[in-house]
């Protein structure tokens, strides 16, 4: 992510602006007392010495600025997620497993691409998440952004729901290496017992098209630019957090925070 770098650069700019303001005020103050301004080089040298002797001032300022920017970003995303909560808590345009709708406390939505290396790295973690974390329901949502083959794989996986084979088909393709060509998709489909003719027909349905489109729109609105992205939501209350990339510890912490928010 480029946020920390951007925050650091803006933070430094803020410090420079503050120093410039300090120099200006010092000049005005000195001029009022002595009838002339201090030498600019002397003031610059003075400020430089202060900063060199107290480098923590810069570090603290940058840390504070970065934390503030992160907090603002989280609040902005949380506000946008409010309108998307009903869609994200529903499996209508995805696939849910783990805790049932009646017993779930926290929902973890994963936005993924079948050609995403980090999605594949996260596969075991995601697969076992409901088993390892009580009260968690996982909802998988296709976000095919990496290549044309990703879109065809996403269409096929969503179509597999009609034959009750999404779960097995999903993990078969997630475990595949290389590019998922049409032939490889067909091979994985056959390996889990899917009817290929029906799969092809269902892949072009409005339901599949609308499912992918809705996920695209949500991702764009909340600023998602890569996969995997995890959205952790409390079922009760309004807790919502977005974790970008492969970050199991971040997802687990968000789950715990979501549970605490409902107590």
Key attributes of the depicted protein:
single chain; 263 residues; alpha+beta; Glutaredoxin; 5-stranded mixed beta sheet; 5 strands; elongated
What can you see in these coordinates?
This protein is α+β, with helices and mostly antiparallel strands. The chain has two domains: 3-75, no CATH class; 89-261, 3-Layer(aba) Sandwich (Glutaredoxin). Helix content is 62%, strand content 11%. The chain has eleven helices and five strands. A five-stranded mixed β-sheet has the order 1-3-2-4-5, sandwiched between helices. Strand 4 and strand 5 (240-244) form a beta hairpin. Helix 1 packs across helix 3 (56-88), helix 6 (148-159) packs antiparallel against helix 7 and helix 6 (148-159) packs across helix 9 (196-203). The protein is elongated, with a radius of gyration of 26 Å. 30% of the residues are buried. Residues 1-12 have low confidence and may be disordered.
């Amino acid at each position: 992510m480029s946020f920390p770098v951007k925050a650091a650069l803006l933070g430094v700019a803020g410090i420079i602006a503050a120093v410039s303001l300090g120099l200006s005020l010092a000049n005005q103050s000195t001029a009022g007392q002595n009838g002339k301004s201090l030498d600019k080089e002397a003031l610059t040298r003075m400020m430089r010495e202060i900063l060199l002797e107290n480098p923590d001032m810069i570090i603290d300022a940058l840390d504070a600025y970065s934390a503030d920017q992160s907090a603002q970003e989280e609040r902005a995303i949380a506000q946008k997620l409010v309108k998307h909560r009903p869609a994200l808590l529903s499996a209508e345009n995805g696939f849910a497993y783990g805790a049932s709708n009646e017993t779930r406390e926290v929902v973890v939505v994963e936005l993924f691409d079948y050609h995403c290396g980090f999605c594949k790295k996260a596969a075991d973690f995601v697969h076992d998440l409901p088993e390892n974390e009580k009260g968690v329901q996982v909802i998988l949502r296709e976000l095919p952004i990496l290549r044309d083959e990703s879109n065809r794989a996403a269409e096929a996986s969503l179509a597999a729901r009609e034959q009750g084979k999404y779960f097995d088909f999903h993990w078969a393709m997630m475990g595949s290496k290389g590019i998922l060509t049409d032939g490889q998709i067909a091979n994985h489909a056959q390996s889990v017992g899917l009817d290929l003719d029906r799969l092809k027909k269902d892949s072009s349905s409005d339901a599949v098209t609308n499912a992918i489109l809705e996920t695209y729109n949500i991702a764009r609105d909340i600023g998602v630019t890569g996969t995997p992205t995890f959205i952790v939501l409390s079922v009760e209350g309004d807790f919502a957090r977005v974790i970008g990339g492969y970050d199991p510890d971040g997802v687990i912490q968000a789950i715990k925070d979501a549970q605490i928010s409902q107590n």
